[in-house]
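Hi everyone,

Forwarding the result from last night's run.
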Amino acid sequence: MMLGRPKKLGNHFLTYYKNWSNLEAGFDWPLEGTTRLPTGAEEGDTPPDAREAQVTRQAHRHNDKKDRIMNSKKVLASAISAIALATVPLSAHAWPEQTVTIIVPYAPGGIADIAARTVAEAMTPVWGQEVIVDNRTGGAGFVAATAVARSTPDGHTLFVADMGVNVINPYLFDDIPYDPASDFRPITMISDTPLVLAAYSGAPFDTTEEYIAYAEANPGDISFASAGIGSLNHIVPEWINYETGIDTVHIPYRGGAPAATAVASGEAEVGVLALSSVGPFVDSDDIKLLGVARQERVESHPDLPTLIEGGVPNVAAGQWAGLFAPSGVSDEIIEKIYEDVAAYLATEEAQSAFADRGAIVSPMTSDEFSQMLDELREQFSTIIEAAGISAD
């Protein structure tokens, strides 16, 4: 009998039988119930009784070999079936089987990090496995995004990211090492921190309508502060310019806090900034709020109109934090994660935790989140191109 070279299948080595038909060569058929001799024997070479015994022994040997062949085939089939079962994607019922890691592209303390840590703490007892947060900073989110995109798509590596990583980056950089539209599966939005059009308290306008009218009458005289080139605080004011036709001057700062300070001091007349970051300056009367960049008013500031109400069409964007998985994670696992996280976000505990940080709980289904991202990408690609914004 010839054995083939061991072959690797999955993590297992299988030895297969080579050329099954060769095992049957050298026998003449039929064997049982006849006195016909094996190939090459001649009449008279062996006494009849011996010939019958020889034929019987040969038949037994053949039957033994045939049984071994059949048994080997069964063993091979069983091994292949076992390996096939081992490679079936992990079901939602079995998930998670190990620690779940949520990768965040920014340093601890930011909006995305807070969202990730809040969810991680809440989901650890729900999932029965430890959920940890891994802050991987650098490269405008490239480091973290690439790590998630290349991770095993079994649901044990998740991603909490924002508008910059998932919407803006592809239009700011000529070449990025990941594709946010195809490398990630949106699971749900976690929280949304509203952006407001904030003005220096001494500015000659008190509403969005007055701001637009003043800017139209004084093109190029108004400056707006941002957290840096290509930041959401940069792009949304350019979006306002695009929709209204006004002309304002961009002054980039190193982060949202310095930008808010610049507006509070009058160094810049306006800024589109996180509501949470300008709160202290509103309380001290150094900043006044003109409008909020949302489809609807903010519950905590019911008297603050939206920018759309103030005559700026379409402009609605916030500093949200969303939960993603690498592409390839099964629908079952995506649905389980969504259901568990959404159930937590619906609690008073979650809403209070985010409200304390100036954020609004905004769970969405995977399909709703995907649709929102598609719309934002279309809008932001147009604005970034029209304003000539580039990070390269």
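The CA atoms of residues 138 and 377 lie 23 Å apart.

Cheers,
N.
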